[in-house]
User: Fold these one by one.
Assistant:
Number 1:
Amino acid sequence: MRPRKRFGQHFLHDSRILQGIASAMALQPGQQVFEIGPGQGALTEYLFDQRLDRYLAVEIDRDLAPLLPPKFPGIEVLEQDILRADFATLLNASDSGGCGWRVVGNLPYNISSPLLMQLVDFVLDRPANIVDMHFMLQKEMAERLSAVPGSKAWGRLSVMTQVTLNVQYLFDVPPESFRPPPKVDSSIIRLTPKQDTTLPVARKSLDQVLRLAFAGRRKRLSNALKTLNLDWQSVAVDSGLRADDVTIENFLMIAGQVESQQDKSSSQQ
Ligand code: SAM
């Protein structure tokens, strides 16, 4: 079957990489797996096991989705766009005996950024539903997700992800491992919900601060965040820093100040 470009189809065929992902996941009997975009089942072949409690997959391509159940008896395949999925229903924790889901996918690169943000939101809402997530991503994206303050890759996506999930960069995958080969390098990452995923501020407030701070990443915070009219005296963060060097804790403090100023001004109205 011809790979469909519009679905970002690059099929893995490198047994070393496939085995590497399976070893990194180390699935145990009785666990529940959720695979995003199983395609022709390259990865499924290495992960599927009758001793798993459930193996649920979502595949958008209606020619590929029906190929999987005959190969993997017991698999549940939904022919659906993952971006329209209702995770709260699909990845119900009580369905998984309260144990949560192991999520995996060699993700289509064109949807990985919005999909990750949806999954981060879901983890924030229901941390117990997810054990961990192993994803193949474009290398540049994996670097952004796992970046540390002070590095070039540090940005909004790094903060929005790391505030809720621990990110581990596992290994790189060269273009030759896929058919057809993509134009970019890829990497495997592991995302694990933090022990405490509660945020001290609304996600929206943090996002607002990050958008402004990283849009002017060369500017000092005092300048990049000028429109927020922050009272810097009340924030224990150096307003002379640039977004590149600001830690998650400091961004949270700034977002907290934004919220308390908004609360004050709305109570005065
Ligand atoms: N897992 C297979 C492998 O490793 O060979 C296929 C990986 S391929 C990079 C991405 C897969 O995601 C394709 O099978 C594609 O049809 C599917 N896909 C693309 N967009 C999707 C979407 N919005 N929802 C669900 N599946 C999607």
Number 2:
Amino acid sequence: MEIAQTTHRTAAQDHLVRCISCGEANGPLAADFRCLHCGDLLEVDFPKWSEGLAPDSAALKTLWRERRTSNQPLDTSGVWRFREMLPALDDWASLITLGEGNTPLYDLPRCARSAGVEQLEAKHQGMNPTGSFKDTGMTVATSFACQNKFRWVACASTGNTSASMAAYAARGGMRSLVIIPEGKIAWGKLSQSLDYGAVTCQLRTDFDGCVRVLNDIIRRYPIYLLNSVNPYRLEGQKTAAIELLEQLDWQVPDHVIVPGGNLGNNSALGKAFLEMMRLGLVDSVPKISVIQAEGANPLYRAVHEHGRELVAVDAETLATAIRIGNPASWKKSLRVMEATGGCVEQVSEAEIAIAKAEIGADGIGCEPASAVTLAGLKKLVKSGFVRPSESVVLILTGHVLKDPEYTIQFHRGDLSVPRMADEEFHTLTAKQRKSPIVLDADADRVLRTLAAEDKRDG
Ligand code: F0G
């Protein structure tokens, strides 16, 4: 195996960085965050928790609640407020925060009826500073990059990681290199990375091709890698699970449903729930299930066709955030699924579009990749995996304004989806579409439109 040339140190004594396969811990970190012995992924562990030095769970709950009245940046961040469960920086002056986390938990009454469950909630991670869940991980990983005195940070991305990285790098005074697939990035995301000052390279390939190119670059240039193979990112992303349970007064929901792309986020949330159980904050964990788009379903196929081994696919879906054929964190993801009793499901482009419009109609909205959660839930209810009386939380990962082109094309009836004839797609989605109405500037015409709507409703 080729070993990356650049290495950097781990931080304080409070945590280990350990290989998920061979268990090797706390050597210098390779630039590609792969184990220097066996090449597998790394994860953060807290050995003191096993040495009788775990923090007291009741004290933690009180402390975290008290911090909500503080105005210190470490406390107003919805990530660092939970810092007892995060790796500590040696030098807190390196902290980069935009006040991430602190995202709302919404109930979705209409979506619940549509899915056939009594109680449905959404943890909206799209309400983070740059409009996606990536910020929760980025505050931790960029702070470590800053502490390690990196001048450059980089990621390959389907758009949200790059937007988030560009913002946090700018805040921390670092330069950022964005590698994205040309033509497959939602406009909101591309515009963010430009505005935050990243060097933005659109490569004529897909996300998986971008990852290959970036891996080559980091072997040849001292750049800090901010893809989700970076274990510090997943540590930050864990906090959505902690914040969720705090919002639910520590009542554990039966199911948490997460979109699956590179498979870092469900792994991070699973790690958090299992760690909260280890610390005695709760005595059970939710079943964590992953939903993929049918056209980008390598985890689904690994479980249902390939005996739990990953075989890369050529990914194609309009949910561009999860257009990924060779996900890095698939092993972590399978472990979480096994440990929590979750499952993996796939959904069609039409199912995604309908679910997205339904989440919008509940007054919330999200980007297409997030809507796979509701689409998947419907299938899990039909199959009996989720019972109507069980409590379910959807993790909405990105803001509705990330991909306005998709939304407008959908409502206008201009959206063409892969693997389905336009006519069939438009027939299936007719009920959810709300086309804009162009009229002469005349009150009578608008009133006639209102009357027609009223008649349709009534
Ligand atoms: N939802 C959104 C909105 C995303 O942007 C992503 C991933 C996911 C879900 C899937 O999360 O990769 O942890 O399984 N976006 C990455 C990016 C790949 O580059 O922005 P995952």
